[in-house]
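A quick word before the example. In earlier lectures we treated sequence and structure as two separate objects. From today on, think of them as two lines of the same record. Here is Small RNA 2'-O-methyltransferase written that way.
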Amino acid sequence: MFCISIASNRVQELNCFKYSISRGKAMETGKGQASGPKKSPFTPKAIIHQRFGTKACYKVEEVQEVVQNGCPSLVIPQKGPCLYRCSLELPEFSVVSETFKRKKDAEQSAAEKAIQKLGIQPKEDNLTVEQAWNELAGRLSYLFSIEFLSAIHPLSGHFRAALAREGHLNGFVPVAAIASFDAKINSLCKYISSELESNHLLVMSLIIEAAKRLADTLLFSEEKLSLKRLTPHPPEIIQSLLKNEPNFPESISIEAVHIPSSAEKTVESVILNASSGNYYLDVIAKELGVKDASKVLISRTIGKASSETRLYFCAPESITIGPSSELYMKQASSFKGCVNTIATYLSGQEICGDAILASVGYTWKSTDLFYEDLSLRAYYRILANKIPSGIYKLSREAILAAELPTAFTTRSNWRGSFPRDILCTFCRQHRLSEPVFSSDSIESLPDLPGRKRLRDTTSVENETNEGGLAATAVAQEGCTLVYRCTVKIYSKCQDLILLCSPKESYKKQTDAIHNVALKVLLWLDGFLDKADMSVEEMPSSAKGFDILIYPQQFVKEFSLCQFLPKYRWSGATLAGSFLCPSYSIVQNNPLEDEVSSGMTPSSGSLVCVTYKIYLATERDCVKEHLEGSEEFDFEIGNGAVSPALESVVTQMSIDQSTRFTMELPSKEIVLAVARDSANILSLLSSGNCLMKCEVTLLRVTVPLEDRMEQALFSPPLSKQRVEYALQHIRESCAASLVDFGCGSGSLLESLLAYQTSLEKIVGVDISQRALARAAKILHSKLDGNIEAEQPTNRIKSAILYEGSILTCDSRLCGYDIATCLEVIEHMEEHDACLFGDIVLSSFCPQILIVSTPNYEYNMILQKSTPQYQEEDPDEKSQQQSCKFRNHDHKFEWTRQQFCQWASELALRHNYDVEFSGVGGEPNKEPGFASQIAVFRRKDSSPVNADFTKHYDVIWEWSSGDNSTS
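And the structure line, produced from the sequence above:
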């Protein structure tokens, strides 16, 4: 038995006290959740509707005003803006509004005039508790009135269905339905108690108490937990309603999802069999194993606000709705063992026992019952939409292929929802306040190396046009503006739970905003993947993302996450390591229909592929399509797709196709993409299925920097830099070479095509992805030379190391020649200076060749490259003279800055330095496109290595045994 005991006077006293305290605190602190809404719960139209219902008739007409054209002799009238006027006809009189730009404003104005004429006193913005009780009783009285039956309202359908219930249930409307489907009831209840956000039973208890004030018109049944009119509706009214009922099918089947409270049980699809004579809440009650709708509680909507998707669950029979919320919370604490964690996580309200997730109900649009099937696929997509990576995947319609990128490069290269939008969606899904972004504009001064380059100028909050005047002033001084952004996330109660304030600055404010949002998303994604993280671990894990966590408040908002099953919506579900997919994936799955060599994607390239992912048995006897796209774009190198897919695509040429096997993800992720869950479940249960992918490379758009160089230079600058290095190799008869920041091995690969004196080549890079691609390319080239028995070079060994070039490893000390081509500009400026000191003082090569872009040449490149104008529409707002050549460049030096850096470096470490370059002419402005410094060691004595080993060997090749490791 569901017991109800309410002491009305005590309830009012307690609630009055709570209301006063919470109001006082809110006024003192200026924050915190108010105990009631700030606006009146009833608009003028709502007040008129409450009194007259459908008898109130609004007629809106368009009014075209004539405006003065300023020319007396011109007889052609000039039309003004379109305005609207509304006339409201009531049974006793009519009124006409003034003119307004919006129709709804005209309607509200007419209603307000009618209210004044009727002498109805307007409600105060903040009701007292007693006023709220009176309004609540008045609202209940209206809901049970005859005129409300014909209204188009989500709750009126429940009243009509209650009149069709048979036997002792006839006419009884469950209190849970009234609490769930009338927004005005909830609004009024919030004036009485501020604890309604997550407390179903408290809302119901307030409705019951208000109903007891209407004991002469309403009947409350404790057993049925329902309300009914004491005076039956006239038979002619019921007959009229039945006659006007829509042609509802005799029997319909609605697919829903059953979510068990036990984590050991499986989430399953269920079929709700409804009919024209049945109340759909009674059907759901039967599925839950209770006798009727009075024992069913209803959650808020899941997903979009307009959605009818809700959770339905049993009311705990032994809980007493007592005279205060404290009593309820004390008694409910004994039921923690049966809390349905997944259902509670989805709704944000405590749900006990099994639950049904269904999309069914009455709407504002029609008197018909709305229903649609809700499949397992939809259920798992709802779960995915609660996680940052899942939100991004769904925006790309690629749950299996796409990943939340690890870097925001350019707007033109980004695909799917932008980071800021994803973060806002995440906050809404978790019922947090909207994130607050604050941008600071900073002057970037064109000073020489070693001087302070940034200073704050102004602060901009949630605006992109602020600071425009400052930008103009700075441009006049020869400075440029860059931006930093901070984001704060608050709970609904306005408690700060997270603050992210990165040190990086960006040339555009939108880039700063999206980058800070992405940092937060990446950390949140990792946290949700390891939600059992202790309070002590949180601050340290967030520190690497420049995030400050407020653990107590954060845990309060995400306490349920630790109980959720880990479906791993991130890249860990697919084949290959998240950081370094092995190229053996392709070796084990040879490319089919291989075509002649063409353009191969590299880091920063934007590629377009066709792909299909399906489940199949080992011999493809049975095949079920899961996901695919005819044109799927992503950027290479920023983790925008699964590691396995990117690893394969980076080894392909345009128009080349391949098939490869991917690691089978969890059943839940497969069901999130499968349209036919029955066939998929059958295939998965067979135990011998694989996930396979077919992919064809359609297009490759090389990075902007490469496009600019290819458009102006023949051969391209990259090849000219290789030829420049080759010239010094030949002149010095170098036997060993180390390439610092080798990336995908483009320089090392190019050197293999020439006859040189080199016997040992080494590459160092911090990116395992890039090194994996380099290993694949170098391995095929070096083995191919040996098999041809006509080697074009004398290479005896090749090694690729993973490590930072800001750290010394004794194995690379004393090489004949070292190169660092177009690398230092990708570091922060102070790191570039640090690298120079480390390489010349610790690695001590005989010759060091360093190249970097000449910033002064950018104007020529950008003016001569039509593609540049299409790169990013936001560039129109840029105040600086020209862009950096690559989105990833942290700085670009002028000739004077580069010369000063290199000269001071050589002087400190006993080297000679000479300057040159490629692209352009030395004695013609603005110099070379790529400026080069060649350092030569003056002292030829042996280098004293300290035998430290900080690098990891990623790949090693030797001609002696023709093997790799």
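Notice the following. The two ends are 72 Å apart (CA to CA). We will return to this example when we discuss secondary structure assignment.
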